[in-house]
Amino acid sequence: MDDRNMDSSSSTITDVATKHPKSIIHIDIDCFYAQVEMLRKPELRSEPLGIQQKNIVVTSNYEARKCGIKKCMLVSEALKSCPNLKLVNGEDLHDYRASSNKIFTLLQHWKSPVEKLGMDENFIDVTNLIQEKIKSTNLSNIKFTGHLYREPETECPCGCHTRLKIASQLASEIRQKIFDELGFTTCAGIAHNKLLAKLICPLHKPNEQTLIYPEHGEEFMSTFQSVRAIPSIGSKTTETLISQNIISVSDLQQVAVDVLKKHFSSDMAVRLKNLCFGEDNTPVKQTGRPQSIGLEDSFKTVSVRSEVEEKFSALLQRLLMLVREDGRIPVSLRVTLRKKDVKRLSSHRESRQCQISSSIFTVNGGVITITEAGQQKLMTIIMRLFNKLIDLSKPFHLTLVGLAFTKFQERMTGRSSIVNYLMNDLSVQSVLNIQNDCDTSASSMDYSAVSPSSSTTTDLSDGEVEPSPKKPKKVNWIAKRRCLSREDVASPSKLKVGELRLNSKELEKVSELRLNSRDRSLTPRASPAKDNMSDTSDNMKDIAEGGNCDECPSYVDKDVFNALPEEMQQELKSMWKNPANSELPRTSTRNMNKSKPNSILKYFVPQK
Ligand code: TTP
Ligand code: MG
């Protein structure tokens, strides 16, 4: 063993506070939809296969690519260049999403942050894992696995080469496990940041992997003919850059940051400069549950209200299936339209959203269900939002309609919170920013995949991702709530719940409390029946579902009430009949302690 080498590496490798401290792996599944279909029907493997959505071939297997099939080709063109192309309809994303979730779940095995990007891409930050591996690895003769973008002239003094070589071995291990357990071949990019890991990944494909060292980032970036190749540069930014004659990444490298500052914010100008040199310090953020679940349908043009209604109705059916799979009750709905400006030959998106009553949905045996009437109610809400977006007295031309549930009910857990059982809606997840065609910001890495211009796609902004570990579906709903761990729920302050005074009037208010996603304070709704819609976060209280049990106030969930012990049901009923019985002096804990051992009041004692 070379002592000199050993000394130099050990003094730097273990020090992560270096110039290039991170090791990131980007994994992309080869011809993803096609592989799902080929795994389902192995006989398709030997044939050129295209996946069709509407009149477009969104992807194809590598057999078909050999015949010149490209992504997003028109079916007619594809058949011209490959007459024996086998086409499979890929408009139902269910199986693709299921496979995507399996891959994401498998990647958790390495206990490192995994960020899901669209359906078939994931980043894994293996920095810490490598630090661990280094302790038990002989570093003197460490080799990379797969392809190397360029041989280094010298070793980077920070020790990143060794770390990245280990990362490449790890990438190979990860890819092998995906193949062994799920049957998918993949490509990987290995680099010290997300930007380079993603961009280097497709250099060798399919079923290959490529490593790039930091010092080659600048030169590698200069090979991109369009600035649009940089993941966080959207169409609007590209347009602005092109207007300044900055077309290639190399052009961007050469332009002075001060010039960029004339057209972009200072932060953005600096970020653009960093990106074009292959510099990116955005972290790999562990993907959680999707913040929104949405579907979109695009088409040439629709100009009649009844057609729009049909489109929404079809989307809603499919969206409800996704909600069922997800297992959370939606409490906010967003409608998106893409309007074509016939005069300007351009189009733009507009969205409106509103709250919906969680009582539209019911939970039976842990499974979310919705009645015909509930669906009708949703359609009414959707068309009301549509009417707000479109002036029906004038002609309109739409090229896309979208629906998304953007907030979900999360329930408090724990035996000590009887309020759980009574409130329909204690806390909600934050609203996701509406995805827009016009991306003007490069301040955060947007690695979203592009969707074809004419197909049904899921909302990508996490929404489509659905990486959430699925809850068991056939468990009793209440039991399920109790089983949820603390981390599973975004619970509001228990103290706040505890502070609630238990009398029927107050409880009536509690039922209308909604945890605002921004300030997370419990604030009463102004007017339950008010239709108060706005562009971004509107309140639209749907018709309250009434009378779950004879004596229950309307806000009480029938299933929940019925599942309570008889004793508690009686206590609640008597309390609703005579609120005075249940007055709880706020200041006197002595009085609380004096309450009957089984008194429901104990559930409202402030938590310490
Ligand atoms: P990609 O990763 O871009 O493509 P791919 O996995 O099919 O092929 P590659 O081997 O080059 O990685 O996209 C992932 C899936 O997303 C793809 O299988 C089909 C779908 N998709 C669309 O629905 N619309 C699109 O416009 C594109 C590009 C992909
Ligand atoms: Mg892919």
Please give a structural write-up.
With 608 residues, the chain is α+β, with helices and mostly antiparallel strands. The chain folds into four domains: 1-221, Alpha-Beta Plaits, CATH 3.30.70; 222-276, DNA polymerase, domain 1 (Orthogonal Bundle), CATH 1.10.150; 293-409, Dna Ligase, domain 1 (2-Layer Sandwich); 418-443 and 461-608, no CATH class. Strands 6-7-1-9-10-8 form a six-stranded mixed beta sheet. Strands 11, 12, 13, 16, 17 and 18 form a six-stranded antiparallel beta sheet that branches. Helix 5 crosses helix 7 (160-182) and helix 14 (305-326) packs across helix 15 (372-389). The longest helix has 23 residues, at 160-182.
At CATH level 3, the topology of the largest domain is Alpha-Beta Plaits
- Class from secondary-structure proportions: alpha+beta
Largest sheet: 6 strands, mixed
Mean pLDDT: 74
Q: What's the total number of strands?
A: 22
- Strand arrangement, major sheet: 6-7-1-9-10-8
Integer tally of domains: 4
Rg over CA atoms, rounded to whole Å, is: 28 Å
The CATH class of the largest domain is: Alpha Beta
Ligands (ions, cofactors included): thymidine-5'-triphosphate, magnesium ion
> How far apart, in Å, are the first and last alpha carbons?
60 Å
Task: Give the fraction of residues assigned to helices.
Answer: 25-40%
Which homologous superfamily in CATH is the superfamily of the largest domain? Reverse transcriptase/Diguanylate cyclase domain
Tell me the strand percentage band.
15-25%
Give the overall silhouette.
Answer: globular
GO molecular function, one term: damaged DNA binding
Biased composition (Polar residues): 443-452, 579-598
Domain UmuC: 24-234
GO biological process, one term: DNA repair
